[in-house]
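Please check the following.

. . .
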Amino acid sequence: MMLESTIIEIDGVFLGTAVLFTSGLLRFHAVHDSVRALHNQLLPDLDSLRHKVGLHFRKVRHPPVARELKRRGPRKGRAGQDC
C-alpha cells in the first residue's frame, strides 16, 4: 500500500516520483526518458534515491565526452579554423 509520494526534480527538470510503501522502501517512478533505466528501483531512503537519480540524469544529459569538449573548447584546424 502506498503511503505518500515525493517529486524528484534535478536541475529544474521533473524526472519522476519517489513512492513510499508500507514496507518502508521507496520505489522510483520515472517519467523522464533520461532516467527510464531507473524506473521501479527500490531504495532505502529519499537521499539515496535523489542522489542515484541525479547522477544518472547528469551522466546521460552531459556524457563525459561532451563535458570534456565544453571544458576545452573547440579544436583548431591547420589554418586556425574550428574543426
